[in-house]
Structure formats: C-alpha cells, structure tokens
Amino acid sequence: MKASRLALLACLFAAPAVAADGPIVIGVPVGLSGANSVVAPSVVQEAQLAVDEINAAGGVLGRKLALEVADDASGAAGAQKAFDSLIYQKKVDVLISMETSAARNAGLPAVGKGKTPYIYTSFYEGHSCNKYLYVDAWVPEQQVPPIVDNFKAKGAKTYFLIGSDYAFGRGMLGFTRGYVEKTGGKVLGEEYLPMDGADWTPIISKLKEAKPDALVTSTAGGAPNVTLTKQMRAAGIDIPYANLAVDEGTAKSMGPDATGIYLSASYVTGIDSPENKKFLEAAQKRFGAELKTPNDLSVPEYEAVYLYKAAVEKAGTTEASKVIEALPTVSFTGPRGAIQMTKQHHAPLTMYLGQVQADGSVKVAAKFDNVDPGEQCPNLK
Amino acid sequence: MLLALDILSTAAILFLVALGLLAIFGVLKIINFAHGAWLTVGAYCAVLAARLGLNPWAAVPLAFVVGLTLGGLAEILIIRPLYRRPLDAILATWGLGIVVGQLITLVFGRDVQFAPALLPGAWRIGGVEYSAYRLFAIFAALLAGALYALMFETTRLGLLARAVIMNETLARALGIDTARVRLFTFMLGTGLAGVAGVLLSPLTSVDPNMGVAWLIGAFMLAMVADASYVALGLASLAFGAVQVLVSAYVSPVLGGVAVAVLAALALRLRPRGFARG
Amino acid sequence: MAEAHSPLTGLRAPALFALIGAAAVAAAPPFLDAFASNVLTRSMLYAALAVTVDLLWGYTGVLTFAQGAFFGVGAYATALMLTHLGATPALFVAALALAIVLPAALGALVGWISFYHGSTPLFASVISLVFPIVATQLVYSGGAWTGSSSGLVGYDVLPLEGEGFFRLAGLLLVAVLVAAWVFVRSDAGKLLIAVRDNEARCAYLGLDPKRIQIALTAILAAVAGLIGFVFANASSVVAPENVGFVFGTEIVIWVALGGRATLFGPAFAAIGIDYLSAQLSGDLPFLWQLVLGSLFVVTIIVAPEGAAGLARRLWRGGTAAPPRLLSLEAAPRETKAGPLLAVRGLSRGFGALTVLREIDLSVKSGELLSLVGPNGAGKTTLMRCLSDGREPFRGEIAMGGQDIAGRPPNRVAALGVGRKFQVASIFEGLSVADCLRLARASHETPSAWRASAALALPAPCVEVVKLTGLIDQLGAPARLLSHGLKQALELAMVLALEPQLVLLDEPTAGLTKGERTLIGEVLVKLTAGQGCAVVLVEHDFDFVREISSRIVVLHQGRLVMDGTVEDVANSALVREIYSGGGHG
Prior knowledge:
The structure holds three protein chains of three kinds. Chain A is of the alpha/beta class. Chain A has two domains: 21-138 and 271-349, Rossmann fold (3-Layer(aba) Sandwich); 140-265, Response regulator (Rossmann fold, 3-Layer(aba) Sandwich). Chain A has helices at 2-18, 40-56, 76-89, 101-114, 140-153, 167-182, 201-210, 223-234, 248-254, 274-287, 299-315, 320-326; strands at 24-30, 65-71, 94-97, 118-120, 133-135, 158-164, 186-193, 214-218, 241-243, 262-265, 332-334, 337-339, 349-356, 362-371. In chain A, helix 2 (40-56) packs parallel to helix 11 (299-315), helix 3 runs parallel beside helix 4 and helix 5 crosses helix 6 (167-182). By secondary structure, chain B is mostly helical. Chain B has a single domain, classed as Orthogonal Bundle (ABC transporter involved in vitamin B12 uptake, BtuC). Helices cover 74% and strands 3% of the residues of chain B. In chain B, strand 1 (122-125) and strand 2 (128-131) form a beta hairpin. In chain C, the strands form four sheets. Chain C has a six-stranded mixed β-sheet with strand order 9-11-12-6-13-14, sandwiched between helices. Chain C has a four-stranded antiparallel β-sheet with strand order 5-4-7-8, covered by helices on one side. Chain C has a two-stranded antiparallel ribbon with strand order 1-2. By secondary structure, chain C is an alpha/beta fold. In chain C, helix 3 (67-84) packs antiparallel against helix 4 (89-114), helix 3 runs parallel beside helix 5 and helix 4 (89-114) crosses helix 5. The chains are: A alpha/beta, B mainly alpha, C alpha/beta.
C-alpha cells in the first residue's frame, strides 16, 4: 500500500517534467525604457530574428522557441522586478539578454535562486562570475588595448577619462587607466556622472581646462553617449576621442556629432564574411524599413540564441544543470565568426578598431584575431 | 571665463524653466507639480517638429500653443475645484503629471529620443570657445524676462494679475473676474513651460520623465522668488552660481542638489520669500 | 466605584486582528507560488510604510514625501554594513540598530527644519521633498562605496528562505497595523487629529504641536528604517530608486486612494496596487499607470477621503458610548501676594501704525475685568500680546510675577493663562468628550495605548458642561454642534485648563439671551469662588455692566479709563468715544 502511494506521488512530481511539450521560453529582460532604450529595440529584433529562423528550421528538440520580453528600466530596481517576473511568473527556461551592469548585477541573485541559465550578451567591465552566467561579448582586456595603442601610435601622451558612475563606467575606465599607465601614458582626469545624468557641463569645462591629448569615454550604452557627445561637440571639443561604449546604431543617431569617434568592437556591419552577409540579408528581409542597425550590442544576442540551441541539443534537455555544462562546449559561427564561451564562461573574440565616418558608417582600421578575454573568473572552471 | 559663462548659462536655463511656474505660484498660490510634464510636452513638440520635417524653431510657437491649450483644460478641470485645498492641488497636479507622462509614452514610446540642435557649433567669446546654444540661452532668458516684465507691468492682464497677487479677496470684491485671471495666468504658465521644454531639448535627452528632474529646482526657485520675476532672476543667478561652483570644485552630483538645499535654507530664514524688501 | 468596562475591552479588536493576521501570514506561504510570494513580501513591507504615511498625513495633517527616503536610508545602512563589514550575527544586530537609529536622527533633523513657530504645512511638505533628493544625490556621490547607480547587490542576508521573509514581512505589517490602531484610538492618539485640525488651539491649551510633529516624524522615520532593514535582507538589492522622491510620492498615492486616516485602507491599497503592478507590468504597463494616475487625480478632487473613507461613511457603524463625567477636586490654590497680571508700558505697532500705546494695567485674582472700546481700539491686539509672548511688543507683561516676553503660547498657557477666541476654536474632527479630554492633556499626559472610559474635569468646567447642555452631547462630533454650543465647548475647554487668568474675546457673540445669562453666571462664579481673574472683551454693554467688577476703556490704543461699572457707565468721555466724538 505504502509503496504504491509513493509511486503515485513520484508520478505526480515526474509528470510535469515529462509533459513538457510546450515551447522553450527565452526570457529577454532589457532596457526598453531608460538609458538603454536607444539600443534595446535592436536587441529585441536580433533575438526575434534568431527565434524565427530556428523555428522555421524545426525548432529545438522538436519544440518551438518563444520570446518573453520584459523591461528592466536600464537599472537595478527595474531589473529586480523584470527578473522576478520572468523567472517566477513566466517560468522561462533561459535568460538571454543585453543589459546595463546595474541591471545584470541586480538580477544575478534571482538567477542563482531560480537556477536559470543566463547568457549575457552585452560587452561589460568584466569579472562578473556566477555558475549560471555565460558571456559572449567582450571585456576590457579585449577592447581597450587596441584603442590606447592606436592613440599612443599617433603620439598621445595625456588622457582624460569620462564615464557613467556605475560598475561598467568605473570598471572600464579603471582598466583603461591601468593600461594607459602601464604603456607610459598619463591620465589627467577621471570624471563621472550618474547613469541618468544629462548635464555634462561642469565635466566638459574641466576637460577643456586640462587640455589632454586624447579623450576616452565609457558611459552607459545609449542616451548618455548621445548627450555627452552632443554637448562636447557643441562646446567645440575636437581632440582624438575614443568611446568605449558606443555601438554603430547609437553612432548613427548622433548624426554628424559622431564623426571621428574611435571605437573598438567585436562587430561592425562592414565585416566581410559570408555569414555576416547572409545575416544582414535575412535581417533586412525580416524587418525591412523597421530594421535597427545591427550592432555590437545586438548581434551577440542573435548568436547567443543559437549557442543556447546548440547547448540544449547537445544536452538533450532544457534542464538547467545539463545546459550550463554543455554551454562552454558548443560553438556557433555567426556574423562575428566562430563563437565559443570556453574561457571561464567568456569567449575569445575577433576585435575591430574603427572610426565613425561622416555618413555614420564605421571604417575598419585594424583587425585583431581571437583576442583572449584573460582571467575573468578563475574560480569557475 | 569658462566658469563665468557656465554660471550665466546655467542661471539662464534655470530662469527659463522656472518662469512659467513663478507666474502660476504668484497668482494662484499653488505649486503646479505637473510643471515637469509640461516641460516634457514642450520637448516632445520639438521631437514632433523634427519628425514632421519642420524647421526646428517652429517647435517654439507649437509648444507654446500646445502648452496653453492643455493648461487651460487642466485649470478648469483640476485646479479650479481644488481652489481651497492647496496641498491637495499639489497632489492632483502630480497625478496629472503622471497621466500626461503616460499619454506621451503611449504616443511616442518610452525610449529616449533626441531633438535636433537649434544652434549647433561653438562661438569664440572672451578668448574661449563656448557652446553657441548655451550662449543663446542667456539671450533667450533675458528676452523672456523682458517680455514677461512688459506683460506684467504694462498690460491689463498684468495689472489684474498684480491685484490678485496682492489681495485676491479684495480684487474679487472690486468686481475683478479672478477666476479668469487665474485661468489665463495658468495657461500662460504652462505655455511658458512648453517653450522652456523646447529650449531644453537640444541640451539633454528627451524621454517621458525628463521633466521631473527640473521640477524640484524650478519650484524651489519660484517659492524663494515669491511672485517677483526680478527676484527669480537674482535667485537663478545666485543659486546657479553655487551649483556650477560646487559641481566644478566638489562634485557634479552634489552640485545638482545645491539649488534645492539653498532654497530650503533661504525659505527657512525668510518664509515669505525674498520678493518684498 | 468599579469601572463599567475596563479600558482593555477596546483592545479586543486589535488583539483579535493581531492573532488572525499573524496566523494567516504564517500559514499562507505553501499556497502561494514563488513569484506571488516574492511580490507580496515586498508589497507587505510597502503597506507598512503606507501606514506610517497615513499616521503622518491622514491623522496629523503632515503631507510628507520623505518616508520613502527614510526607508531607503534604513535599507542602505543595512546593505552598506553587510557589504563592507560582513554578515556575522553581531553585525546583523548592528545593522538593525543602525537602520533604526540613523533614520530616526535624520527624521529629527528634518522635523526640526520643517516645524518651527510660524512654519506652514506647505514648507514642511517642501522640505519632505528636498530630503529624498538630497539623500539620492548623496547615494550617487558615494561612488563605488554606495554602488552609485548600480546600487548594492549580492551581500549576505539573513538566513531565511523566501517563505521566511514572507512571514517576517507579514508579521512586521501586522505589528505596525496593530500598534498604529491601538495608538490612534488611545487618548494620546487624539492629539494627532487635534494637531491636524487646529494647531493654534493646541498651543493655547499648553501643548506644543511642533514638538509633537517633530517627535512623530522621528519615530515614524525609525519605523521606516526598520522596514528598510527587512527589505534589504528580503530583496538583496538596494538601489537609488528605493530612496528617491518618486517612491515617496507613490506611497502618498496609495494612502490617498486607500483612504486617509483609515490605516487599513492605505495598507490594502499598497498591497493591491503593488501586486497588480507586478502582474501587469509586462503586459499593459502604460495603460495601468495611466489608469492609476487618472484614478488618483479623480480621487483627490471628488472623493478625498479615499476608498476606505467612503466605505466608512456608508457603513455608519455603531458609535462608541460616551464617557462618564467625573468632577475633580480643585487643587488648593495659594493666593500670591501681588497682582496676577501686571502690564507696564505695553506698546505694539505694525510698521508706522501704532496700535497700543503705553498701556499700564494690573489685574488681581477675583476680578472680572471687561475691556471695552470702539472697533479698532486695539482690544484683540492686547489680548494677543497677553497670551503670546512671541508678539513683538515693547514694555513688560508679567503673569504671576513671571515675564512672558518670548514665550510661545503654550508656555504662556503653562503660567495659567487660558484664552478663548472670538470664533470658536475647537477640534472639529473629534468628539466633544475628546476635545475636553485633550484640554486636560497639559495636566495629565494622555495614555498612548488606553482609551479612557471616564472623563475627569475640574468643577467649573463640569458646571459649564452641565449648564449649557453639552453633557447630552459628549459623544457627538464637535463639528456638528450649533454655534452657541461650540462657544460653550471652547469655554469649557479653556476652563478645563484650570487657568488663573481667563482671557475671553467676545464670549457672547452669536449667543441667545438665555445662553448669555448662563455664561455670565459661570464667569461670576469663577472669579468669586475659584480665585481666578477674568478679562473679557465685549461689545454688549448690558452684559458688561451686569457681571463686571471693573471696566477698562481702550481708545485708539490708549487706556483712557479704568474704574468701577458706575464710574465708566456714567462717564461723559465714554459716551463721547462711542458716539465718535472723542478723537485726537
């Protein structure tokens, strides 16, 4: 009697796991409002494109993919609500998204508690480590050296740093300062505004007084980039200017103010590869006139969906512990080339140094193959 | 020189933003907490003008008319019933601000937009390069102040407004239609706020909540100045100077609160504001 | 005599609620899914915050946007300690202590800035807005230490699971509700409504409304800090948005919609709105906010009492039984040598206009002095100077030998001065009995948890209550009294102070002939038997002639005559003054 009752209970608990015929749900918490709202639409589009392509080809393990998008307001408080909603209410199988570091950090506790795999597709300041977190975008070790080396080659000795006051801004500029000083340069000033700050006047005046050879900025992606650049150009700043956090799409929306900005990215639309051409054609066909320029913040999202598909197929299940075991072992060749998150949950990437042209496009000046992300999470295997 | 220009242009922007609120506070004796929303409406007029392909300067009269109209509706439906409950009027206008913000979001989306520069580039003045638009802002503030003073001191509406400011009950007893004075003043205030929003838009990013950041500073200035536009100009200059100096020498973040803290201290010392004597 | 019902019976309902609430909170978690549990944990903490705002705004009339910031300060204090110092049990206790003490200190500071003699409610609201802004900017300026825009994340928290935090938050909410409930129905709780309805009257009854407001702000700030401590542990994320003024305004919106001065209305509104927001946030974020904002505006304009207030009005539950009236023995009063009131060379001017010139006046106990004179002679100004030492007068005023210069009304009242105003100044939101009880508050500190069943008043006060028929209206709301009864109530309240000097400003205005006679008898009895002195301003010369022992005539700010009733009544000078001849 007792054994059969136990068997019945076991069936009740097993049943939900067995009867998983519904779609695999991908949660996308992203900054639909706030600082990131300039770039969020392109991120959602890339996720949508990947999902549509995969579904058209038969889905994953016979199941379709579905997207659940939630607004994290580009900040910590909003991210907590968005992650809560996606993990506990919508019960997503995985989170794949690009967000500010404030949002990512705030969401990680929920990721750990809810045991949900999380592929972070945004470049960031590095050293964010969690069993469930995987990153397929660049970190400072991959992105900053090309820029500083380029300025040094052009004769720059003194630098001024401006950023948004949160983990990303401080992390990036901290690394930059270290690299500048290691290569013999000098940092004249390092100034920050809160992420939502829009009045850069006092900082711009300080910049003018310091008279540096070059300027390096690292604000939150999106609005702060635009306001800072606009205000600087209006104040007549025209020294060599590298922006660590700008993507092609945002550069386009800055209009003529963006001309001359140096950037270092793992993706530019000008990449000459068959995968990128195929990708751009498909995006153009899918979205037509509504297409937002694919950029360094949104293309990793596209690739991450494919990486997840590969991991699930290799693991044979969407169960979290098996998926996170499979993730570092799978690879996908997309618009950015071959991506595999083998290095302590991060990925070696091909980086491009470019300069924004008058028409908003990015001209590639140099290419660096397979740049190593360095020791990001030595405590994770 | 840079510092001086920063101070003047910051003061000018504070003055422009607070002028509309001052008019309303002086005559109606309430704080229009929807002021931030009117600023936002004005900024979105600039965005709209850009989308429609109009000359960016066309946004100024557009914002004035839109602000005027919406303000008139708001006064009749919301402010008038709360005439005797000033604290509740603050709350109701705050609620109105939320409603307006959500309507803007529904129409334009919640993402950040950018308005085109009205006056791009930098000018050389006093040996330094300075943002042309910020210099224009100084001129705009002086012009707005002059027009306001003209309207206030020489027109009939200005005369009636002054009467209501001094003693509303007496004005009513003398047969002045104070309800109409209040309505027109409110409309003027919101129209000015719309224009200020357009003027703000090239300097900052435009999103449905941008006005809120300016609201507190604006009404603190308006309270310190009471009903006097001269006092508002002086207060803008004084507090703007402190804001710029603190931002430059201490931290930009603390500079941002300078206006609010100074105004609070000033009101504590002289609760009636600094307008009379 | 045995009490008909012990004060504990009134505590039955709160105790019952405490039990049921605690049981529900403890039993609920298994029935809720993880998402609902997380959201409700936060919602219940917000509901507790809403209750504190209701106490400040609904009951005391202080519109505050700062409670959210005190909550945020408590949360940040906790997170800062846990992040930078660690998470040992001792440190948790330290964090709890800091989360309570720091907001309390800040609350006292904010209160001190906001509430001072002559401050307006608008100024207090403005300061309550400035504080969250300053706090937010301080958080931003803390750079890497406070996490700035990122906030503080990933620190170790109390070793409770989601269910544990749900129960903790729920119990905290129940505790706050019960404490608030017991307090507002207690005698001391009525003080809040008194301060809200009529601050001036509180001051003239010897109470210090500013100190009450400051104390309340500090205490509720501490409560908010405690809620913040639990929040920091339950959510493991503390961000600048938790300190901002937008959050503070959200709490006010919940209170407005739920119902001011109902406690449960704001709590349920907070839970309902926060929970619904979380559920709908993905699907219809704009529509939901739009609906909420519109509902808020409509509620403020059309139904300011909010949902629970409307419900209360419709329900019309049974009113409490009025208290029993007891008569107090008069404390034996030592007759001091010398005059009760000594005024020397009193002058008062407003700019170029001199209203009082060199007034010399001395009043002994037992005198019934009437102050007469045409309009504009300065009578009310004189009364004001006698009762409020902060008036900028020149000269000396001494009450019972003590100089009153610089003393605020409540400290002048402490010297034994009771003032009755021309327009009846009572507490419209309270019952007659509560008004009278509050009038005794400066003599007997009211209990913070008990609602007394008996009302003990001095004999002359009881006499007024009986004579004027107020005794039949003890349980009635004061605002429903007739004009004459309101005047009588105010007189009774002044007499409840057991004053030595009673200042009356036109006590018979608007009264019937019968009511006037009554009042006259009472005043004569007061001065004859109780050793008081009465100074009254009156226009009804017949009334004055009947009851006064002495008449003083004021004309154009000068004391022109001071003598017995016969002297003054027959004086040619007085006739001239009243017929308008005596100018110059």
